[in-house]
Design a protein that fits this description.
The chain is mainly alpha-helical. The chain has one domain (about 45-290): MetI-like (MetI-like fold, Orthogonal Bundle), CATH 1.10.3720. The protein has helices at about 10-35, 55-60, 65-95, 100-110, 115-125, 135-140, 150-180, 185-190, 195-210, 210-225, 230-235, 245-255, 260-285, and strands spanning about 40, 50. Strand 1 and strand 2 form a beta hairpin. Helix 8 packs antiparallel against helix 9 (about 195-210) and helix 12 packs antiparallel against helix 13 (about 260-285). The two termini are about 20 Å apart. The relative contact order is 0.13. One of its GO terms (biological process) is transmembrane transport. Part of the ABC transporter complex UgpBAEC involved in sn-glycerol-3-phosphate (G3P) import. Probably responsible for the translocation of the substrate across the membrane. It is found in: Cell inner membrane; Cell membrane. The complex is composed of two ATP-binding proteins (UgpC), two transmembrane proteins (UgpA and UgpE) and a solute-binding protein (UgpB).
């Protein structure tokens, strides 16, 4: 096995120094600052602060609104990850069957990923706006009293649809790459043995996509917990009645709008712990079932 050699022993550290500095400035330092701030009771204008220990955590974990945001986040994250990954896998499989213009179809599928989350949220809000939305009119014609600004179930469905649509392109790109890495000879041999398309997919294609699926499971979990803030902020603002207020949006709402700095910092620390625990659980238990061929 060949090892890379450098003319100077400090050169490798110099090469990774920019990434280390970025991680230090934009991740580790804010994380440590949030952990310290979560133990303080601060004036909204920063004029005074008082050390209260774990009092902020006790108040947060006993707050019914925070417990509701945990339920909302769990439901939103699971459904969003499932829809975005399953639809992307279906589209990737179908795109591989296209004989002419395959690159053109792939390009069209990737384009939505370039849309910013806030813009994606506004697009879906305009399309389903109860007053002038293009796609809201057919719903009203079918007798559906459509108003996601007042109906909590419809609001949740709208933000899930927007968040899933935004992430489908990312998942599609990786699933296409995974499908291209599968040897065609395996699929052809199964077809010669008489296996149908559905059986070939579930017994050959999908198991070989396990590494890609596991990677996307981790990425989509983090996406649903953090990167959907812009969509929720643009579409519902956490409403109606906190029906779409996820954990990350409650951190923003309490800290930025209500000036509860200590409580907001405690919530951010809890959210960070949840993400670390969830990722570790996925790597420890879910990855065991992943086969790397």
């Amino acid at each position: 096995m060949n090892r890379a050699t450098f003319p100077h022993r400090f050169l490798p550290w110099l090469l990774v120094l920019p990434q280390l500095l970025i991680s230090l400035v934009f991740f580790y330092w804010p994380a440590l600052q949030a952990m310290w701030q979560s133990t303080l009771k601060e004036d909204p204008f920063g004029l005074s602060s008082k050390f209260v220990g774990l009092e902020n955590f006790r108040k947060v974990l006993s707050d019914p609104a925070y417990l509701n945001s945990i339920k909302v986040t769990a439901f939103f994250s699971v459904v969003t990850a499932f829809l975005s990954m399953s639809i992307a896998l279906l589209l990737a499989v179908q795109a591989e069957k296209v004989l002419r213009g395959k690159a053109f179809y792939r390009t069209l599928m990737i384009w939505p990923y370039a849309v910013a989350p806030a813009i994606a949220g506004m697009l879906w809000l305009f399309m389903f706006n109860p007053s002038f939305g293009t796609l809201a009119w057919p719903l009203r014609q079918m007798g559906i009293d459509w108003d996601p600004l007042l109906n909590s179930g419809q609001a949740m469905g709208l933000v899930i649809a927007a968040a899933s649509w935004k992430q489908i392109s990312y998942n599609f790109l990786f699933f296409v790459a995974g499908l291209q890495a599968i040897p065609k000879s395996l699929i052809e041999a199964a077809a010669i043995d008489g296996a149908g398309s559905a059986r070939r997919f579930w017994t050959i294609v999908f198991p070989l996509l396990a590494p890609t699926t596991f990677f996307l499971l981790v990425v989509n979990s983090v996406y649903a917990l953090f990167d959907t803030f812009g969509i929720i902020h643009a579409v519902t603002g956490g409403g109606p009645g906190k029906a779409t207020e996820t954990l990350v949006y409650k951190v923003y709402n309490d800290g930025y709008n209500n000036f509860l700095l200590g409580s907001s910092a405690a919530q951010s620390v809890i959210l960070m712990a949840i993400v670390i625990t969830l990722t570790a659980f996925q790597f420890k238990y879910v990855e065991r079932k992943v086969h790397y061929g």
